[in-house]
Amino acid sequence: MAKKIIIVGAGPGGLTSAMLLAKRGFDVEVFEKDEKVGGRNQSIEENGYKFDTGPTFLMMKFILDEVFKEAGKDVNDYLKFTNLEPMYSLLFKDKEINISSDKKKMKAEIARVFPGEEETLDKMLKREEKRFKSLFPCLQKDYSNFSAFFSKDFIKSIPHFALGKSMFEELGKYFSSDDLKLSFTFQSKYLGMSAWECPGAFMIIPFIEHNYGIYHVEGGLSEISEKMAVVAKENGAKIYLNTKIKKLLLEGKKVIGVETEDNKKHFADKIIINSDFAYSMASLVDKGVLKKYSKENLKKKKYSCSIFMIYLGVDKEYKTPHHQIVFAKDYKKNVDDIFVNLKISMDTSFYVRNASISDKTLAPKGHNALYVLVPVANNKSNIDWDKEKKAFRDLVISSIQERTDYKDLEKHIKFEKIITPKDWEETYNVFEGATFNLAHSLDQMLYFRPRNKFEELENLYLVGGGTHPGSGLPTIYESARITSDLITKHFQK
């Protein structure tokens, strides 16, 4: 009889594990509280407009290719990909630069905007390729015990961690202009961190973008999760929607199943948590059971920033970049307000995605579906978003109209949805509203991040951004592969 696996949450990590484990012959059941799969990777659909809730482009497509192949499928039979070129446009207070994965175009663009600095690009990419090749194998390993931490791969990689150096400091080795440094370090925001605090090891992220490019998926990135659910079911998994988990069922420190909100108990040989890690430990485990990750200790951990989201359906076709990132006029102050001062920044940075320019399936003809993301402090800030929401929304729209080509945006809005940090915590069950999970500081990475085979409870495994190797779609897929392999190996003994 096949061993039974229960997965809590049908986000990208849970669905990846469901695909893989079902293919390997396990009896897999997935419980999802929402009416659709995807978690923060699901779609928002209203009035003919379609938006991604969270991730808006795919890096490291080769990982997605691999997990589909391991599930017995070809990803290209399920999804249509577009390699975005240029990848995005960066707008500073006095200049704009288009970032390309084509090295020749990128050098020409640096020469145009930052003359004299273009020849350093080759040096940077060559050095960062060495860092990537050294560190990436470390991200693919499990750290379920201390001996796994001090592997040969890890020891060889230590010089590449740039201990004590931030991404911004590492870029100082290559470029002199602060704006050009930001052009290669703003990716720290993918981890919910400041470029001045994010460990230099994460210079692998801009290298990955420039070396492998970034992709749009037709219908939005949410289609990845939708098609993963299809594959999981084709492989034999069962997915139950609108089914919220009330708590984990325990025998001492051993997890034996889950109890749903309708008081039904479901038992399994192994349980995988894909819901937000800190939320799950604080809400699904009986008080007093956990020590290292008790609710009190969870509150002491470092967390990523949050995001203020605005989804806009507009009755106009704007010919603007697919991805546009606008830096605050005083970017360092803006970053300090988010990460240090924990307050609303009146001079804010923002990101606007107009995927309709590349994908006509996302909005009615003659319309655009716009996605606006604004980094803000997480809920440790105690900002009253019920009180501040309208004024901050108006500030963001005003800033977009002032600084981009969306000059008449306000009068063309036909649909609008806002998600505040409070909503992330209360509706989406994101601890402290920290949308990128636990901060990716070195003391919360690898062995020191919650492990895929959870260290405090037997039979419990983790996938998602809150466990190793961290947040972001590719690393979440990798976390699911690590966890699936650990479970498979356990039953092969």
Secondary-structure map:
Elements: E1 4-8, H1 12-23, E2 27-31, E3 43-46, E4 49-52, H2 61-70, E5 81-83, E6 88-91, E7 96-99, H3 103-113, H4 120-139, H5 146-149, H6 152-157, H7 167-171, H8 178-183, H9 204-212, E8 215-217, H10 222-234, E9 238-240, E10 245-251, E11 254-260, E12 265-267, E13 270-273, H11 277-283, H12 295-300, E14 306-314, E15 323-326, H13 331-339, E16 350-353, E17 368-376, H14 385-403, E18 413-419, H15 421-426, E19 460-462, H16 473-492
Parallel strand pairs: 1-2, 1-13, 2-9, 6-15, 13-19
Antiparallel strand pairs: 3-4, 5-8, 6-7, 10-11, 11-12, 14-17, 14-18, 15-16, 16-17
CATH class call of the largest domain: Alpha Beta
Q: Please indicate the percent range of residues in DSSP E strands (runs of 2 or more).
A: 15-25%
Structural class determined from secondary elements: alpha/beta
Give the biggest beta sheet: 7 strands, mixed
